[in-house]
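User: Sequence recovery, please. Input:
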């Protein structure tokens, strides 16, 4: 994806972000998190390209340096965004639009972090393979140099070959390569630790999202219970109203009968 496309995507996201005029702090935090997630997705794309060069003919010290720079930068930013997402997930008294933003942030954060973790593991595997190969080469060169220095019964031609090899592989170069390998092994340990730390963060955010979902399910069940109770009460009220109406009708009929009987009796008395 080109830079122009990424810029267009960011502009579209900003236009599509709802406004929370009643809660400017929520708006500020959510907008900041969306901007950082946009940068993290861009870092993932660049990291994907650089990791693809590892272990190939395009693998250079500069490529490995860019890989570690991107990993370090993204790792720290993911920690910041993760804390922000955890904070916004526990926001109280959210509106419908704010609830949508909570779900959007957690969904995009988990997707970006999952992709980053995959890229970290790929870089880790390739770094380990490269370091193993480099260490094997250094050990082989060290063994050749030691054998040449040890000397021993050999022909003049063999001695000359060993001396040539010793000159080709000076000890300073072997020590330098060994130092580079140790440095890269330290970088591998840092990547492994970073993967573990971000796994914990991913699980924490997922746990909060799960708890929020369970809370929403509980609220939804309570709403359904209240709705059912309300429907039941309304049904009982309607039945009571019908019963009361029937009772009034019966009373009116009885009163009418009594009036008719009383009228007949009075007429009989007066006419008699």
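Assistant: Recovered sequence (272 residues):
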């Amino acid at each position: 994806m080109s830079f122009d496309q990424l810029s267009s995507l960011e502009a579209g996201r900003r236009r599509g972000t709802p406004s929370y005029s009643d809660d400017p702090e929520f708006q500020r935090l959510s907008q900041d998190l969306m901007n950082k997630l946009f940068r993290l997705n861009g870092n993932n794309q660049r990291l994907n390209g650089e990791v693809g060069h590892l272990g190939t003919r395009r693998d250079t010290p500069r490529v490995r340096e860019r890989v570690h720079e991107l990993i370090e930068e993204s790792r720290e930013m993911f920690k910041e965004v993760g804390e922000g997402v955890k904070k916004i997930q526990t926001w109280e008294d959210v509106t419908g639009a704010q609830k949508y933003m909570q779900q959007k942030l957690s969904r995009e954060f988990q997707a970006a972090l999952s992709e980053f973790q995959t890229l970290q593991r790929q870089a880790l595997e390739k770094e380990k393979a490269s370091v193993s190969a480099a260490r094997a080469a250094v050990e082989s060169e060290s063994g050749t140099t030691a054998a040449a220095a040890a000397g021993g019964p050999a022909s003049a031609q063999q001695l000359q070959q060993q001396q040539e090899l010793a000159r080709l592989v000076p000890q300073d170069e072997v020590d330098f390569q060994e130092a580079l390998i140790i440095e890269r092994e330290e970088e591998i340990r840092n990547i492994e630790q970073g993967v573990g730390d971000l796994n914990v963060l991913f699980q924490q955010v997922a746990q909060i999202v799960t708890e929020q979902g369970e809370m929403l399910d509980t609220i939804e069940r309570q709403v359904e219970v209240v709705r059912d109770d309300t429907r039941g009460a309304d049904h009982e009220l309607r039945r009571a109203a019908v019963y009361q109406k029937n009772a009034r009708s019966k009373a009116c009929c009885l009163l009418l009968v009594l009036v008719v009987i009383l009228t007949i009796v009075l007429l009989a008395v007066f006419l008699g």
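Confidence is low (pLDDT under 50) at residues 13-20.
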